[in-house]
């Protein structure tokens, strides 16, 4: 398994290089630049800025310079947040996004698999119909609707929780953002678990386990759920990368100092290095979590081997 993980990581390097290359040149094809403000800058000041950030060099030289810095872990200076480098911005914001996203992912997995399993065990009952209806509702309502509603109802009207702010990650400040991020994932995981659980309960090995007289808990958890969880694991790879790298809507509405707020700002302001940094972080997270999912397959399903 270790050799498989190493081969996968080495095989992902060309993919990561291709992502960096396409992103580097694509962002520069867009009209405008990081110093094209509403009020024009003095040409001499603009020339000095471009020289300071090496934007006066040929594009191929900028690209090789960026790759050289990237190889040492340097994502470069931010063109808009000029007192900070991209590394410093991520060092401050990424742990916050990971904390909120990780809590949302854990809650989604816990509740989604539970609700989906209960619905599958009571297929075509009132409980099943209710779970499916609520899950469908949760999938269709976007976070830019639920976030302000939660903030208004629980933060302003009822006053039970803070309507916004981070407060160094206090539990009360995390409840609404985590719940907002988790709700769509709970709905999706519920639907995935229900569908795969129904199929697993009808499989031969589950019927054999029941014929041996195993308890219902053992049949459901040790046999059926292990097979049913595989589609959920496949979904959780990219979902985890998306949650842990922040949500623009949630972090903006609740005033959370994560990195999600940088995504759109960097693109609109043509902050080349910050755009590249966010793309690289998301790509690395997706690669790592997809690899983790592959490794978990072998843990959950004994038929999977990476020898």
Keyword list:
single chain, 307 residues, mainly alpha, MetI-like fold, 12 helices, 75% helix, 0% strand, globular
Overall geometry: globular
Order of helices and strands: HHHHHHHHHHHH
Query: How many extended strands?
Result: 0
Strand content: under 5%
- CATH domain class name of the largest domain: Mainly Alpha
**Can you say what the CATH homologous superfamily of the largest domain is?**
MetI-like
The number of distinct helices, counting runs of at least 4 residues, comes to: 12
CATH topology label of the largest domain: MetI-like fold
Structural class: mainly alpha
Cα-atom Rg, whole angstroms?
24 Å
Number of domain units: 2
> What is the end-to-end distance?
6 Å
What's the CATH architecture of the largest domain?
A: Orthogonal Bundle
Average of per-residue pLDDT values: 85
Helix content: over 70%
Largest sheet: none
The unreliable regions are none
How would you describe the overall organization of this protein?
The chain is built from twelve helices and no strands. With 307 residues, the chain is mainly α. It has two domains: 2-71, no CATH class; 87-300, MetI-like fold, CATH 1.10.3720. The protein is globular, with a radius of gyration of 24 Å. It starts with a helix and ends in a 7-residue tail after the last helix.
């Amino acid at each position: 398994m270790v050799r498989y993980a190493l081969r996968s990581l080495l095989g992902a390097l060309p993919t990561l290089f291709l992502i960096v290359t396409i992103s580097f040149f694509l962002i520069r094809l867009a009209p405008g630049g990081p110093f094209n403000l509403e009020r024009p800058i003095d040409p001499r000041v603009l020339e000095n800025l471009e020289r300071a950030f090496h934007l006066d060099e040929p594009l191929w030289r900028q690209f090789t310079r960026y790759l050289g810095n990237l190889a040492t872990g340097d994502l470069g200076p931010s063109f808009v947040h000029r007192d900070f480098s991209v590394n410093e911005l991520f060092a401050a914001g990424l742990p916050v996004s990971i904390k909120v996203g990780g809590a949302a992912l854990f809650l989604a997995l816990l509740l989604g698999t539970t609700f989906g399993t209960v619905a599958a065990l009571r297929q075509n009952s009132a409980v099943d119909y209710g779970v499916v209806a609520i899950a469908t509702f949760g999938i269709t309502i976007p976070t830019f609707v639920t976030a302000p509603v939660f903030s208004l109802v629980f933060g302003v009207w009822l006053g039970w929780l803070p309507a916004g702010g981070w407060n160094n990650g206090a539990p009360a400040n995390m409840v609404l953002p985590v719940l907002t991020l988790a709700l769509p994932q709970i709905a999706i995981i519920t639907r995935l678990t229900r569908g795969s659980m129904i199929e697993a309960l009808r499989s031969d090995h589950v019927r054999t386990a029941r014929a041996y007289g195993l308890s219902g808990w053992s049949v459901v958890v040790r046999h059926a759920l292990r097979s049913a969880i595989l589609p959920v694991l496949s979904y959780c790879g990219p979902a985890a990368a998306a949650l842990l790298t922040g949500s623009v809507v949630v972090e903006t509405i609740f005033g959370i100092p994560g990195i999600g707020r940088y995504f759109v700002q960097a693109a609109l302001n043509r902050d080349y290095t910050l755009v590249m940094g966010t793309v690289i972080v998301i790509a690395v997270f997706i690669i790592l979590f997809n690899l983790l999912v592959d490794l978990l397959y072998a843990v959950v399903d004994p038929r999977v081997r990476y020898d």
